[in-house]
Amino acid sequence: MQHFLRLPLLLLLLVTFMASCRSGSVEDGVAAEQPAAEPTTVYLVRHAEKDTSNPSEQDPDLNDTGKARAEALRTLLKGKHIDALYATKYIRTIHTLKPLADERQLEIRQYEGHDFNGIKQRLLQEHAGQTVVVAGHSNTLLPIIEAFGAKRPVSEIVDSEYTYLFKLVVDGQNPAVVEVNRFAE
Predict the structure, then answer these.
(1) What percent of the chain lies above the pLDDT cut of 70?
(2) How far apart (Å, rounded) are the C-alpha atoms in residues 96 and 92?
(3) What's the CATH number of domain 40-182, 3.40.980.10, 1.25.40.620, 2.40.110.10, 3.40.50.1240?
């Protein structure tokens, strides 16, 4: 009687094992590791220097120094694969990414500057495993870094500071890693 009970159990184990072998999840009787997903890389940059000649202008463009910095960003990222560009609704963030957009023929997508979790979710859902460049503001870059689970690499970005380029690497398994670079100093 015990042999009759063992037979269905053995058949069930055999069928499960065979199904696993066909689906590729078991090799040579040992569970195969799933390939690691590519990390998502996010470059965060503050908009370049803005034109302050008209104090009443609510949405100023870049000044000549800012235009040169936008070109320097394009040059710095030359040779790096970029999948998407994001900027807030302001001309200064859009024009900071314009040389990159023109060279790569990429659309500059808009995001809400103070929706830190929103941009995080959007990037991880729409660009998982890709490389994205995000242009923001002195008071938004560090909160975006924190939204990804990384610690602030600097305590603040003062209003006169335009040289930071932060590189976030998010792999989904570990906390985001942030690297601090400076450019066009």
Answers:
(1) 81
(2) 6
(3) 3.40.50.1240
Asked whether the CA dihedral 52, 58, 63, 69 is positive or negative, the reply is positive
Angle value at C-alpha 74, between 71 and 76, nearest 5 degrees: 110
Amino acid at 108: I
pLDDT bracket for residue 76 (50, 70, 90): very high
- What does the mean pLDDT of the chain come to? 87
Q: Which of 43, 34, 46, 36 is nearest to 127 (CA)?
A: 43
What does the domain layout of the chain look like in residue ranges? 2-31, 40-182
68: Cβ contacts below 8 Å, ≥ 6 apart: 184
Rounded (10°) angle between helices 64-76 and 91-104: 40
Helices (H) and strands (E) in the chain, counts: 5, 8
Q: What is the pLDDT of residues 116-145, one digit of tens each?
A: 999 999 999 999 999 999 999 999 999 999
Would you say residue 10 has pLDDT above 70? no
Do the Cβ atoms of 85 and 173 come closer than 8 Å? Answer: no
